[in-house]
Structure formats: structure tokens, C-alpha cells
Amino acid sequence: MCGIVAVTGYRKALPLLIDGLQKLEYRGYDSAGIAVINEDNNLICDKSEGKLKNLINKVSNKDISGYVGIGHTRWATHGKPIVKNAHPHLDSLGSIAVVQNGIIENFQELKSKLEKEGVDFKSDTDTEVIPHLIQKELNNLSKLNLENNGSTLLIAVRNVISDLEGAYALAVIWSGAPDSLVVARRQAPLIIGLGEGEFVCASDTPAIANFTKTILPMEDEEIGLLTPLGIELYDSENERQYRNPVSLKSSEQVVDKKNFRHYMHKEIYDQPEIAKNWVKKYLSKIDSNQYKINYAFDTNFLEGIERIQILACGTSRHASMVGSYLLEQFSGIPTNVFYASEFRYSPPPLLPNTLTIGVSQSGETADTLAALNMEIKRRKLTNKLELQPNLIAITNRLDSSMGRLVPNIIDISAGIEIGVAATKTFFGQLLSFYGLAIKFAQLRNSKSADEINNLILDLINLPPQLEELVSSHNKISEKLAHDFSDIKDVIFLGRGINYPIALEGALKLKEISYIHAAGYPAGEMKHGPIALLEKKVPVISIATPGKVFEKVISNAQEAKARDSYLIGIAPKCKGIEIFDFLLPLPAIDEWLSPLVAVIPLQLLSYHIAAHKGLDVDQPRNLAKSVTVE
Ligand code: AGP
């Protein structure tokens, strides 16, 4: 989603801005732009549609030599992804430039007022109101004989943001204060990186990691003035804030693609290693046949937990649904999974001793953060001990807003994921839920020690099986992908623990190949979706031996009777003759089956999209961190 980088210091701004924007590319965007105050104190602004390399080509022959500047990658919300809507946006004098992430909800009202006053808008964006309003404020302040400097810009921006409704993170420069940068945030992340005699401010830590490891995450509603001499930070009451910077917790380095054509492909191949590292990090043997789950936080509070609610979106929600199955069926603890976006506006009644788990690979998803914040607030307001918030976050980004909001973090530790379609972080989220299910099963004695140990041993033995699975399925899927050239609809079926894997298979296919796909619990197909079935609608059915194997096979029969081409994801065993094509799984215990069943689905989606020549890593309209509601 949109990305912000802003710098002020002793080094030329442009290369730092471009480097920062390149580090934010993975988040997904459709246009990019920069603005710099040059050495003659003029504001220079350049923008381009499409990939960042278009902007780089545009600015590379120009001598843009200032030391303060702002940059942005835009993911369109208001107005099409075209140059005029790309950020930065300027005031009518071309002296103020603004980049913004978020949505200004009352922009229409502000825009109409400005238009009546004669302001000519150049874009369709909500953001453009901001530079015009700042210009108006600076005019008013000049009547008070305030000097042209950073402090005056700070006052002007503060006055303007008090009129803005919605969520935003913004950075502003003004040719009247050529070394100053003003930054502000409300419900959208912004982090200041502290160098020596220079500062960078960005919406996400990878843009900072090359520059410095010392950061100062801005708190909600703060505004700051950054000059090469230092930082002034103020809260919404205009109280100056003093606090110590912290160190980046993880390396946040964007890794290279190795020899893979796409990051997504590499990330699917990373999964066996992630399983190996998870075993090392989260499991330790306490005696000859007893293991414990290691967490970086004190887990005593889990003992009194009576129920769990999980808040997540998209793929993270699918991982949470597998988690919920494990927590209920293996650990015996009632668990509900909510779409974070729905929970925000229709939360269930408060129940005592509830553990709330936020799940987000990016840790920046606006809906999940808002749902978590709302839950924390409403529980605290009750003052009742049994209703107080008990929280865990499962995230891949320790230095994210979620990482800072929630005290107890389960680190997915999958390494930064670049492909917009989540694969390895989904896998890491699944592993996190296996750990939690084991922890709760041990606490509640919901399973015998042997059953718990068997699951642990299966997890320990999983990595080599995964290696074999990834490499064999890569070849099979590459071949099968050719058969999908003309396919417009695909149905995914699963039951029990693998129903969420059917949903995830359908989501992956939709996201990167733009083929319509839907996942259903296999038993539900006959209640409606069966009407869609015909020769040209393949059905992909996950059938792993266990509680519901025979049921899934019967449901697949129903599809076969309607002429659908049946693809089975199943081990080679009796019953699978029904499938027209088999994506074979190793014989594995049902509890563990989601961890293997998802791999052929990821690879098949990948190869279908790659075969179609699509932009696999940055599919159209999608973003890696969805920071708007
Ligand atoms: C995953 O492939 C998707 N791009 C999307 O559904 C994603 O899972 C969702 O936006 C939630 O993201 P999060 O895990 O960063 O919170």
C-alpha cells in the first residue's frame, strides 16, 4: 500500500529517497513521486505512473541537488492511478509539497470550501486539500509576522490536521523552510530513523534499515519537526514529547530473489527452512519424552483463559481458522475467528477470561489494528478484572504497529515476505497456531501426553518431507498449469481442518491469476454451488485420511457426476481413484495435513499465474500492507 519516505540532513536527498522507495516497493503501489527543496530553495517535484523505475528514469538526468525531500509510492484510493493523482501534491504556488498515507474522510467538504475561495485542484485525490490548507495557514501566520522557518511550518501543519477527519500519516516540506521536514500521524504508521546529523522518516521499517538501526516510532496523533539539528515532537495537546529511541528489533532486510523468477516462488521454497527454524526456536525437550513450547513472554496468564477470539483479515484469517480448529478440537478451548473489519462494528458481547489474538503478517493491517484497539479499550473501560484484555499477536514484523501495541508477541520468524500474495507467512502463522494448540493442550490436559508428543514429533519430522513435497510438486504444478489457460472458474473443496485450506487455495488463485475461484466446505456444495459445475469448472478437492475422508470423497463424487474435472490433493490411498488428476501428498497424520496440503495449492496458483505471464509478485489492485479501512 502507499509508502512514505522523507529525509533531511547533510546528504543529498534524492538518492536516499529512491533507495527508501525501492525498499517499500514490495508493499504494492501504482505510481510514485518525489519532491526536494534544491540548493536555490526551489521545490522540485517529479512523479510517474507505474513502476518506480519510470520515476528513476525521469529524475536520473536531472540535477536535483537538495538535502530535504519527500517520496511516495501510491496505491490508489481516491482517483485513478495516473500521474496527476500521484504524490507529492503541491499548493498553488508550488512551494509546499505533501505526501500522505491514509484517507481524509472530510476532504470533499474541505475541497468545496477551498474551491469556493478560488483554489484550482489539479488532482482527484483527498490529499491535495492538505497543501492548499497549509498555504492558507502560512498566509495567515505571515500576517502575524512569524518568520519563514520550520517552527512556522509546524504550526501551520498542526492547525490543518486539527481539521482533518480520518486516518493519515503525512510528510510536508516547504521552500520557505529549506532544511525542515514536518511529519504527523493518526492511526497510520510513521517511524523516525535517527542518523548522525540526518533523519529519515518512513511508513515502514525496511525504508529505514539501510540508513540507521535507531528508530523512534511516532505515537498516534503526534506531530514532529525534523531538521539536521534535531527533532521536536509534540502530542495532540501540543505538549513536547521526550523519549528514548529504540533499536530495530529485526534486520528488516529485503532479501534477493536468488535464482527464482519471482519472490513468491522463492518464498514457497523457503517453507521447509521455516519449519526447521520454528522447531529450533519454539520447541525444547525437557526430559526424555516431554517437550515445551518456548515463548518470549510470561505465559502464566494463559492458565485462566476460558475462550479465545481471533481477529484477522484475508490469508491471516484462513490461518486463524486452522488455528481455531486446533484450539477447539485438540486443546478443547472454545475459539471464534472474526473478520477484523466486521468485528470493529459488531463485536460480540464481552465475555470473561477471553484471550484475544491479533494475526497479521505485516502487523500494519488497519482493520486488524483498529479491531484490536477497540477491544482493548472496551475491556479496559469495564474495570472488571475478569473482563480485562488478555492479548497475543501473531506477526512477522516485530517492529510493526501490532508489534508495539500488543505485549505478547508470537514471532512468525519467516523473514520479510515480498510477494504480495502471502505464502510463507501463512505457513508460519499455521506453525504458530500448532505451538499455541500444544501449549493449551498441555495446560488443560485436553489430550494425553502421548497424543501431544505424537503431534510434536510429527512437527519435528516435517521439514524433510516438506522439502521433498515442494520440489516434486513444483514440476507437477508447472505441467498442470497449462490446462488452466482457458479456465474461468475453479471450485476448491475441503472439510474439517482443511476447509480453511480450500479457502486459502481459492484466494491464492484469485489474487495472482485473476481466475475466479471459491472455496467451500465440501458438504456445503450440494446446497447451492453445485449449480456452477460443468466440464469447464475444475474442482480441486482436499482429501486427507481422517475423520472426514470418506465424506470428502462422496462430495467429490457429486462433482464428478456433473462432469467436473476433478483434481485431488490426497495421499496415494484407497478412494482416490475417483480423481482425474492427483496432486499427491505424503501419508501424514490428519492434524498436520494443512501444513502439507497448502503447498500444492500455492505452487499450482503460482505456475498458473506465471504461465499467463502475470506480475506474480505485485498483482493488480493488491497491496502487501493494507493500511486503510
Ligand atoms: C494475502 O495473500 C493477501 N494479500 C491478504 O489477504 C492479506 O492476508 C490480508 O490483507 C491481511 O494482511 P496481514 O496478514 O498483513 O494482516
Task: Walk me through this protein's architecture.
This protein is α/β, with parallel strands linked by helices and 629 residues long. The chain has three domains: 3-247, Glutamine Phosphoribosylpyrophosphate, subunit 1, domain 1 (4-Layer Sandwich); 257-460, Glucose-6-phosphate isomerase like protein, domain 1 (Rossmann fold), CATH 3.40.50.10490; 466-629, Glucose-6-phosphate isomerase like protein, domain 1 (Rossmann fold, 3-Layer(aba) Sandwich). The chain is 35% helix and 22% strand. The chain has 18 helices and 26 strands. An eight-stranded antiparallel β-sheet has the order 3-2-4-1-10-9-11-14. Helix 9 (314-329) packs antiparallel against helix 16. It is globular, with a radius of gyration of 26 Å. It starts with a strand and ends in an 18-residue tail after the last helix. The mean pLDDT is 93. 2-deoxy-2-amino glucitol-6-phosphate binds at residues 313-316, 360-362, 365, 368, 420-422, 511, 622, 625-626.
In brief:
The chain has 629 residues and is of the alpha/beta class. It has 18 helices and 26 strands.
Notable traits:
single chain; 629 residues; alpha/beta; Glutamine Phosphoribosylpyrophosphate, subunit 1, domain 1; Rossmann fold; 3 domains; eight-stranded antiparallel beta sheet; six-stranded antiparallel beta sheet; 18 helices; 35% helix; binds 2-deoxy-2-amino glucitol-6-phosphate
